[in-house]
Amino acid sequence: MTDIRPDAPSPNMRIVDIDVPFGRLVLFFVKAGLALVPALFLIWAVFALVAFVFGGLFGIGFMEHGRMMRW
Q: How many domains does the chain divide into?
């Protein structure tokens, strides 16, 4: 007796079509677009924190009237 289940796909199987109704596909993309807003805010916050830390460590990034501030 083999260890392969009777409902397991054969090694030569390939997917040729996926049938998704248009309405469900639109709903998925709307949800993905709405989920993008907080994700972008989180990414922006992480980059801002990294820039703040590097600016504090190396004294770069602080601009005053187009010139670098001299300490």
A: 1
HEC-encoded secondary structure of the chain: CCCCCCCCCCCCCCCCCCCCCHHHHHHHHHHHHHHHHHHHHHHHHHHHHHHHHHHHHHCCCCEECCEECCC
pLDDT in tens, 16-26: 888 999 999 99
Q: Residue 38 has which token pair?
A: 């907080």
Q: 8 in a domain, yes or no?
A: no
Residue 4 lies in a domain: no
pLDDT digits (tens, 9 = 90+) for 10-55: 677 788 888 999 999 999 999 999 999 999 999 999 998 988 887 7
